[in-house]
Amino acid sequence: MILRYLLCILLPLPGMAQWNKADIEKRFNTYINFKGSLNNSVSITDEGVSILSAGKPEFTVYANEYSLLQSILTTYNYDEQVKFYNWKKTQHLNRKQLDSLGFIVNAGLKPGVSNTNPNLPLAGIRIAIDPGHIAGNRDMAHIEQKFLDFGPNAANTLKDSIHIAEGILTYNTAAILKNKLTAKGAQVFVTRPQQNFSAFQVTYDTWYKQRRKKTLDSLVKAGSMTEARHKQLMKLDQRKFFWEFFRDYELIERSRIINAYKPDLTIVIHYNVDEKNTDWLNPSNKNYTMTFIGGGMTNDNLSKPANKMHLLRLLLTDQLQRSEKISSITVQQFSKQLNIPLAKQTDADYLRDNCLKTPSAGVFCRNLALCRLINSPLVYGECLYQDDVDECQKLTISDYDVEGLKVPKRVYEVANCYYDAIIEYFRSK
Q: Which end of the chain is more exposed for a tag (fewer CB within 10 A), N or C?
């Protein structure tokens, strides 16, 4: 029988959100439904929410099941959620059914944080930090195509050569931020434990040489990959394999270890570039700051049950509102402390074509993998354009000492923006 394994489910408890059709519709239209793409895939009525297939309900959350589904969507991993989706479909749930399936009532409740120590305002709070990309050296930066190499020439005002790897910037930002947060009592988990490491806790070079075949073999055995695909991937060199397989596979691992940590908040750190700077020979004169949250989903995102559960989580919980709150605070800190204008939807093609504008300036819904897969409130930060002519020069010189770590002062300033935003977010909760 499906769902024989133990599930600890929270039934409606005092303080948990109750069904409100107007709130659900507002969340759907504000954050999730990208340009009406989901109009024929999701139905919201007084009775509940349905995922539709060929115009008919395939899965329904009834109004009196709202709190139960919130618990399932925020507490259990996606394999368990998919099994639940495939089992429940459109049937009504009752206590007798749950008991027969092995549900335990009121177990798994995470106690609220009670903190009265003003010197440790983050005591008891769990924060995950994901430093974007991998590179800790130029070779890896070139493999993942996240680097800047500019030299002085007649077309720019540079006095010295510029060499930047985004993975180094993000890792150093995360290291500084972690130290500042732990000093205030937070429990902090970083997905990449050291420079040049992936979320698999080894370098990409080590993973490619020692784990590639075993991983691909296991996917074939599980039925997730064909023999032909396995054979094709095994022929690829490190650069091509990274883009054909590893990049997306490693993002899934990042979300898995973050979700296993069960954070109260997740910080995804990136440094942006000017999309129109296509030749990459000279710096740009553009610089904007922005943050992303989940949502902005389209009908083709619903081809798999897992993505349908992601949609339901974003629709039925308050994660998007909380993500918007921390993201708004963060982008305001970027703008104020770094003196960078907030991006408007007209400032980049991807903001116009692939994002929904939220009610908060500089915050956009974008259906990025981590924005969809991470099961907590989050901010996906793009603090500045690293190829801006002024920024790239600031980011090249590691002349600022942070507890023995030599970094560009700009990196410290970015970490401080995240830190101040986190303190304000939890103070105002």
A: N
